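**Archive record**
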Amino acid sequence: MKRIALLMFVFVACATTPPKPSAPDPTPDLEAKLRAIPTLHLRYYVETTGAIVMLARGSMEWDAEHLRIDVSGSLAGERKSTRYERPADRRRDVIETWIRVGLAHNFYRLLSDQETETLDAHAANVKAVEKDHYAFDLIVGGKSIGSADLWLDANGLPLRREQTMRVGKGEVKVTERYLWLP
């Protein structure tokens, strides 16, 4: 009898515990915040494992007139480096892709001698894991391609990103770290 009462108590307690509400999607505000930064100096480290193996390190800078990304590292074991310099109007594409699917996507393109691009992408099912840490599903072209965790620093800017994505070749695990310079 005590077991039945205990099981009923656990069942009722679990059934009445409200689900944790979804957090508001931080990505639109984050994109706007980055677009408002007139001069940016950032160092980064990006590593992917699994179906795509890449290591990219370097810097990203912009001002009112220019965008410059220096990338060096390796792609599928081959050493590569490049400098991407464009007018400042390309910042929007870089910012949107960075926040929506991570820097790794465009760095892969740059190390493959391709132009950066913006994807039809957004976050879904956003959860606030803890203060300044969000988890969400990655939606590209209307399809779920994986999940991401994004940590923000004390200023509300990206600090770290970890994600798992499904691509045509299989699964890719991505780690990105950002160091904001004065």
User: Anything to note?
Assistant: Residues 20-180 form a domain with the outer membrane lipoprotein receptor (LolB), chain A fold (CATH 2.50.20).
